[in-house]
Amino acid sequence: MGGSEVTVFHGQELDKAIEDILVRSAGLPADVVGTGTGETTLEELGLDSLACMELQAVLKDRYGVRIPEESLEMSIPQIAAYVNKALEETN
Prior knowledge:
With 91 residues, the chain is mainly alpha-helical. It has helices at 13-24, 30-33, 42-45, 49-63, 76-90.
């Protein structure tokens, strides 16, 4: 068919994927990622602008979605919802 299939995540799958990216690519300690609430922003978790740019690059490469520059002010669930919405719109 020539088109690529886009996966839309359900539940907390994408939250966990973003947490993994934050630990593996952005350098956030694993014990810090799990300490936040659903409303804790990336900045409150200790992410700086350089690490946020790394997260943006990985999400763009992996899912083809560019998250907003103000993503430091977003929580992991908010970023997951943003990515899911963008993936749904491409289908």
